[in-house]
From TrEMBL:
This is ATP-binding cassette domain-containing protein. InterPro entries: AAA+_ATPase (IPR003593), ABC_transporter-like_ATP-bd (IPR003439), ABC_Transporter_VariousFunc (IPR051782), P-loop_NTPase (IPR027417). One of its GO terms (molecular function) is ATP binding. Residues 86-319 form the ABC transporter domain. PROSITE patterns: ABC_TRANSPORTER_2. Pfam families: ABC_tran. Keywords: ATP-binding, Nucleotide-binding, Transport.
Length: 385
């Protein structure tokens, strides 16, 4: 079975399980991979119908499955993501003597992969993104791009790599007109322009917002607009600085999943690096997490001998329990260390202790647990140690 066939099968299963919210977004990804304007028009017509008939789930499923069946007849070529699209070697950036220094950092970025860039404030995330975007010059090391589309100037480079900063600029006119403007700059025929723009509007859940102006959109929808605008340019490398900053928790998860799915396109994958403070959300979708501490890349290898946390099971717990009581109940589990950090406990056990045993112990003592997480392999442990 090809990747495309496997994916269509998955999407059919979402609809069969009546998970139409996810199924419909994945259906649109399958449609985008066909690059077939007739399919796009089918999806656009169905999106319009769906917005007008929000309660007719059965018909939506039926019509979606029909489109999927048409998509399955279109051959989709697998893109070979073997070669990195960016290779940075020993990159160093200094803002001057006795000031912040980033690096040396070495990094290889492949299309189809999502890289999460995390770290506390002021540790160099934006600096690294701006270097990769060629907005900022590095002092030492090499940075090589290997794009499919040739670039002869920094202007050309801008269509291969797109950097969306934390604060984006105001625009004028309607959301849809602004998106159409992007493609008209590439000299696209007006009919195709309309179809591609409406497809992207549908994909980013902007259908009911397409006639609104900048000041009529919430920050979250402004970010969706930026993503739609960016993806219309079909970049090969996408650099996002804090894209989740203004989104509510559910929207953060939806946008991250969408980005992952779009970047994982079968025939047109994109390499994505995004910086964020939303560690868990980012870890969930990232193929690799880059944790920056004082400008250095701290490698997240739980087994690494260089990390002083490697020999522990580390658990984060929020519970209604006194510190002394917690200490006492964990004595049997050979408790190593108990830290109270920002309202939650960080508990260290020898690595031989299994996480379910911690759960069992808390249950046995009827501790009122609000939240618990095993952070042994998460970069979260760097934030608390
Ligand atoms: N143009 C500049 N000149 C001098 N120092 C700078 C400049 N830009 C950034 N810095 C310093 O470099 C360090 C790293 O900044 P950077 O914005 O890269 O961090 P960050 O991890 O993105 O932080 P945040 O999470 O707060 O956005 C900070 O100490 C900052 O003050």
């Amino acid at each position: 079975m090809t990747r495309a066939e496997t994916r269509i099968k998955e999407v059919v299963a979402f609809f069969e399980n009546k998970d139409t919210f996810l199924g419909y977004r994945k259906l649109m990804d399958c449609a985008i991979d066909t690059q077939d304007l007739d399919i796009y028009n089918d999806v656009i017509a169905l999106t319009d119908w769906k917005e007008k008939h929000p309660n007719d789930e059965e018909k939506l499923i039926k019509r979606s499955l029909e489109i999927l069946s048409r998509i399955s007849k279109i051959p989709i070529e697998d893109y070979n993501t073997k070669h990195p699209v960016v290779t940075g070697t020993n990159i160093i950036k200094s803002y001057g003597a006795n000031r912040f220094k980033l690096g040396p950092i070495s990094i290889k970025i492949h299309k189809g992969d999502v890289y999460g860039l995390v770290g506390e404030n002021g540790n160099g995330k934006t600096t690294l993104l701006r270097i990769l975007a060629k907005e900022l010059k590095h002092n030492e090391g090499s940075l090589k791009f290997n794009f499919d589309k040739d670039f002869n100037s920094d202007y050309d480079l801008r269509s291969n790599l797109v950097y969306i900063p934390q604060r984006t600029q105001k625009w004028y006119g309607s959301l849809k007109d602004n998106l159409k403007f992007v493609l008209s700059n590439y000299g696209m025929d007006p009919k195709e322009n309309e179809t591609r723009v409406l497809m992207m509007i549908a994909r980013f859940g902007l259908w009911n917002y397409k006639h609104l102006k900048w000041n009529e959109l919430s920050s979250g929808y402004k970010m969706r607009f930026e993503l739609a605008r960016t993806l219309l340019r079909q970049p090969e490398l996408l650099l996002l600085d804090e894209p989740l900053a203004n989104l509510d928790v559910l929207a953060q998860q939806v946008i991250l999943e969408d980005l992952k799915s779009i970047c994982n396109s079968i025939n047109n994958p994109i390499a994505l690096i995004l910086s964020s403070q939303q560690l868990y959300e980012v870890e969930k979708v990232s193929d690799k997490v880059i944790y920056l501490k004082n400008g250095m890349h701290k490698h997240n290898k739980a087994e690494s001998a260089t990390t002083n946390t490697s020999n522990y099971l580390i658990v984060e717990i929020d519970c209604n329990c006194e510190r002394e009581k917690l200490k006492q109940i964990f004595t049997d589990l050979s408790l190593e260390k108990l830290i109270f950090n920002g309202g939650i406990f960080i508990v260290y056990f020898p690595i031989k202790i299994a996480f379910p045993l911690v759960l069992e112990t808390l249950g046995k003592h009827e501790i009122d647990v609000i939240y618990i997480r095993n952070i042994t392999k998460s970069t979260r442990r760097f934030f608390v140690s």
